Amino acid sequence: MEHxxxxxxxxxxxxxxxxxxRREDPGVWAEMRRGTLPxxxxxxxxxxxxxxxxxxxxxxxxxxxxxRGRPCTTHHRARPELERQSGVLKNARVVDDGDLVTAxxxxxxxxxxxxxxRRELGADAATGLETMLExxxxxxxWSRPATPR
Length: 149
Description:
The protein is of the alpha/beta class and 149 residues long. It is built from 6 helices and 7 strands, in the order E-H-H-E-H-E-H-E-E-E-H-H-E. The strands form 2 sheets. It has a 5-stranded mixed sheet with strand order 1-2-6-5-7, sandwiched between helices. A two-stranded parallel ribbon has the order 3-4. Helix 1 (28-34) runs parallel beside helix 3 and helix 5 (108-121) runs antiparallel to helix 6 (123-133). The mean pLDDT is 92.
């Protein structure tokens, strides 16, 4: 990394994917082999931080142990591996499990961004962003049911 990052200063940490179909540099497989990024991600969670990933960036979260036993999704080609690594796959473009939010393949990144804006800033902000982007959110969002008080 040219510049460090400090998850202690963030409210949301978003991990992109890419390069999963090839095993060499650059890409997710190379980062998993190196181990630096998965170790940093493993150490990142804390109260108040939302860790999000899209596409095969979810596999970096899996390598860090962050998806184990948790509802999640990823790019369709990586889903079998995510399930083998104990992720609880949900059939949705975005899966919101509170402090862990994951999104499927490439264009699901737009869905992830719109969902996080809706969740954190409200429906009006998300609708305004859709208008600015000239993109309308589509597809399913799975969200953990609220716990009764």
